[in-house]
Amino acid sequence: MLFGELSQNEAVVEKVEVAENRLLSTTRFEVDPAKVAAAVTEAEKKGYELIGLFHSHPAPAAPSSVDLKYMRLWGDALWLIMSSTDSKLAAYQLMDDKIKEATIRIE
Ligand SMILES: [Zn+2]
Questions:
Q1: How far is the CA of 51 from the centre of ligand 1 (A)?
Q2: From ligand 1's centre to the CA of 17, what distance in Å?
Q3: How confident is the model at residue 35 (pLDDT cuts 50, 70, 90)?
Q4: What is the pLDDT of residues 75-91, one digit of tens each?
């Protein structure tokens, strides 16, 4: 889970919270909703909001059809995906129901 601030043109990640994949799968993931809620409450105390989700793929770093389904549920959230096959990192956001790739800047 990526916490920070999201504005019109920029998402700034200030805090990263790792969550266990309760599916114990390398191709699908699911996080305990109670742990997400607890992490969100904790981050909000510091003024951060949940602005994105990070996960890896044993495939190219692009949203899968399952990701797209959940992107529709998560609204503005950024989806940061790393490919475990070539270590490529990419970020995506759904805008007007179209997947847009975002530029990643690491400082
Ligand atoms: Zn995915």
A1: 16
A2: 18
A3: very high
A4: 889 999 999 999 999 99
Query: Which residues face 53 on adjacent strands?
Result: 79
55 C-alpha to center of ligand 1: Å?
A: 6
Asked if residue 33 lies in contact with residue 60, where contact means CB atoms within 8 angstroms, the answer is: no
Show the tokens assigned to 17.
């919270």
Give the containing element (helix H, strand E) for 90: strand 89-95
pLDDT band at 18 (very low <50, low <70, confident <90, very high): very high
**Span from the CA of 41 to the centroid of ligand 1 (angstroms):** 25
- What pTM was estimated for this model as a whole? 0.89
Strand 11-16 to 49-57 pairing = unpaired
